[in-house]
Amino acid sequence: MNVSASGDSHAMPGLRIVASHIRQSKVIYSAGIGMVAGGSLLAAQIPKLLGQVTDNLRSGHPGVREMAGFAGAILLIGALRVSTGWGGRVLVHLKGRELTYRLRNELFEKWCTLSPSYYHSHSSGDLISHALSDVDIVGDLVTLGLNQSISGMAMLLGAVWLMLLHTGWQLTFAALGPLLFIPLLVEWLGPAIRLQSQRAQEALGAMSQTTEETVEGIRAIKAFRKEEVFNSRFEKRVDLIVEEKMRFARLSALFSSLVPLMVNLGFILTLGYGGYLVATKVISLGDFVAMTLYVALLRMPLEQLGNVVNIFQRAIPSLERIEKLLQVVPEVVDSEEPLDASPAGAITVNGLTFRYPGSDRDVLQELSFSVKPGQTLGIIGVMGSGKSTLADLLLRLYDPPAGTILVGGHDILDYPLARLRKAIAYVPQDGFLFSGTVLENIGFSDPDPDRSRAERCAAVAAVHENILGFPEGYLTEIGDRGVRMSGGQKQRLAIARMIYKDAPFQIMDDSLSAVDARTEGIILKNLRNLSNSRSGSEEGGGKVTIIISHRLSAVQDADEILVLDEGRIVERGTHEALVSMGGDLCRAVVHADRSV
Ligand SMILES: Nc1ncnc2c1ncn2[C@@H]1O[C@H](COP(=O)(O)OP(=O)(O)O)[C@@H](O)[C@H]1O
Ligand SMILES: [Mg+2]
Fold first, then answer.
1. Is residue 148 pLDDT above 80, yes or no?
2. Residues 359, 297 share a domain
3. Residue 343 and residue 313 share a domain
4. 339 and 286 together in one domain
C-alpha cells in the first residue's frame, strides 16, 4: 500500500490542514474577520438611520442641523463600512492565497519524492486536477467561505437584533421569514447549476477535442475518406453543447426568479402587517421604512450564507484528496544510515531477481554480471525482456532486493539517493526533453549551462549541426511553443545531455533507436574516443557505460553483451562470440536488426 496506515479516519480529516493554517496566522485572521464583521454590522445600521430620518421628516419640522447630522452619520458609517469590509476581505484573501501556495508546493514536493510506480497507477490528468482545482477549492473555502459567512452572519444578526428592538418579534419574523428560504434555495439549486455549467463546459471541451483531432489527423481522415464520419461526430458535439446550455439556462432562470419571489413575499408581509402596525401606532413610520429596507438589504447576505454551505460541501472531498496525497509514503528513500560516500568503481549484480510492487511475476530472474570502470556493457533483448527495468533498478527508481546490486563493493541501497543519482548520467528510452532552450536541455545537470561545453557535447552526439540549423541555434525553445524535433534529434540531444553531465556511470536505454545506422556508428565511436581520452587523465580510469538496445549493432563494441529474454540472461559474450555461437535468441535479435 502507498498510503500510510496512520491515516486514522476523522470525520473530516482534511479540515486539519485548514485548521492548522488558520491557527498559524490567527492574529491576521482574527483581525480580518473582525473587520469584515464590523463592516457588516455597520451596514446594518443604515436602514435604521434612514428610518429615523423618516420619523424626523414626519414630525413636520425637520431641523436643518439635525438632518445634516443624519447625513453626516450615514456618510461616516458608509465610509467606515467600506474601509473595514474591504480591508478585512483583503487580509483574509492574502492569507488564503498563502494557503493555496503552500498546498501546491507541498503537493509538488511530495510528487518529486514518489517513484514511477506511483505515476503508473495515477493518471497525470488526475494529478493536475489535484494541483489546480482541489487546491483552488480549498482556497475558496478559506477566503470566500470565511468572508461570506462572517459578513452574512454579522449583517443578519445585526439587522435582526435592531428589528427585534424596535418592532417586536412578530413583524421581524413575518418580514424576514420568507428570506430565510433563500439560503435553502441556494443550497438546493446551487450545486445543480454548477454541475450543469460544468457539463456545458465539458461539451465545449469535447467539441474542441474533436476539432483538434480533425485538424491534426486531417491526412489520415482524408486518406481513409472519413470526412463524413468526422462531420457527423462534430454535429453531435455541437448539438450536445446546445442541449447542455439550455438546461443550464433553465436552471439558472428558475433560481433567479425564486430568490426575488422570496424577497417580494417579505415585502408583501411587511407592507400588510407592518402597515397595520403603523396604522395602529404600534410602530413608527420610520420603523416601517427600516423594515422594508432590511428586506431588500438582507437578500445578498442570505444568498451568501447558502453559498457558504455549498463551498463547504465541495471543499470536503478536495481536502480529503489532498490530505491523502500528502500522506503517501515514497517507496524509495535513503537507508537509515547511508554511507558517506559517492558511488564509484565497478557495478556488480549478484543473483538479481525482481518483481514490480503489486505484481506476481518476476520481471528479472537471477541476473549476475559485472562492469568495471572503463568498460562498456551491452544489453540487448526484445521488447518486454526487462532491459528498462534493470536501468530503473540501477537508478533506484525502484529498490532492488538488498545485496543484489553492488557499486564499488557497497550495496546500492546504502548510498544516499541524491549522490547515487548524481553519479549516473542516464538517457531515458524516450529521450524526454523539457520545455526550455536547447542549451538548457543539454546543460540540464548544471544550474548555469556552459555554451561551449554544450557545443562540444552536442558534437559528440552528432547533433551540433542540426542545432545550428534551428532558428535560434542553441537558444531555440523546445516544446509546444518551440521547434519540433524528429525522434532521432531528440535522442541525440538527450545523449548530449548525458555527456554534459560527465558522471562516472552512464546508462543509455535504447537511446539510438530512432537514429540511422551510420549516425549511430559515429556517435558510438565518438563516445568511445571520449572515454579513452579521459580515462588516461582521470584517476580510477574511465566510466562504466551500459548501452541498452534492441539492436545488436548498437552494442557491437561492448566488452560484454548480455542477451535478455523474459528477464533471464540467455546468452552472453562479445559480439563475435555471440554471432559465432548463433544461438536462437541472438539470431532473432540479429535478424530483427537487419530488418530495421
Ligand atoms: N511499473 C511496472 N509495473 C509492472 N510491470 C511493469 C512495470 N514496468 C514494466 N513492467 C513489465 O516488466 C516487463 C519488462 O519491461 P521493460 O523493463 O520495460 O522491458 P524492455 O525495456 O526490455 O522493453 C514487461 O513485461 C512490462 O510489462
Ligand atoms: Mg525499455
1. yes
2. no
3. no
4. no
Looking at residue 378, which CATH number applies to its domain? 3.40.50.300
In a domain, 475, yes or no: no
Q: Report the first-to-last Cα separation within the chain, whole angstroms.
A: 42
Mutate to test the pocket of ligand 1, among 120, 122, 360, 363 (most ligand atoms within 8 A of CB): 363
- pTM listed for this prediction: 0.73
Checking 284-287 for CB contacts under 8 A at 24+ apart, the result is 284/51, 284/54, 284/55, 284/58, 285/54, 285/55, 285/58, 286/50, 286/51, 286/52, 286/53, 286/54, 286/55, 286/56, 286/58, 287/51, 287/166, 287/167
Please choose, from the candidates 239, 251, 146, the residue with its C-alpha nearest in 3D space to the C-alpha of residue 198: 251
Question: What's the gap in Å between 162 CA and the centre of ligand 1?
Answer: 72
Between CA 530 and CA 532 the distance in angstroms is 5
Q: What is the rounded CA–CA span in Å between residue 367 and residue 365?
A: 6
Q: What is the mean pLDDT of residues 69-75?
A: 92
Mean pLDDT of 201-207: 87
In angstroms, the CA 263 to CA 296 distance is 7
- Rounded distance, CA 18 to CA 23, Å? 9
Question: Which protein residue has the closest C-alpha to ligand 1 atom 1?
Answer: 117
| pLDDT-derived band at 589, boundaries 50, 70, 90 | low
Cα separation, 31 vs 146, in Å, equals: 12
Q: What is the dihedral of CA 584, 586, 587, 590, to 10 degrees?
A: 160
pLDDT for residue 4:
38
- Give the number of other CB atoms < 10 A from CB of residue 38: 19
**Best of 361, 388, 507 to mutate for ligand 1, by most ligand atoms within 8 A of CB?**
388
Number of domains in the chain: 2
Half-sphere CA count of 500, side-chain side, radius 13 A? 29
Q: 589 alpha carbon to ligand 2 midpoint, in Å?
A: 15
Distance 363 CA to ligand 1 centre (A): 7
Q: Which atom of ligand 1 is nearest to the CA of 509?
A: 21
Buried b (16+ CB within 10 A) or exposed e, 290-300: bbbbbbebbbe
Whole-number Å distance between alpha carbons of 220 and 222:
5
Task: Tell whether 314 and 376 lie within a shared domain.
Answer: no
Segment 295-321 mean pLDDT:
87
Q: Ligand 2 centroid vs 390 CA: distance in angstroms?
A: 9
Ligand nearest to the CA of 392: 1
Q: Which residues sit with their C-beta closer than 6 Å to ligand 1? A: 117, 120, 356, 359, 363, 381, 383-389
Highest mean pLDDT among 60-64, 106-110, 228-232: 228-232
Domain of 547?
A: 335-423+543-596
* pLDDT score at 293: 92
Helix, strand, coil percent content, the chain, rounded in steps of 5? 65, 10, 25
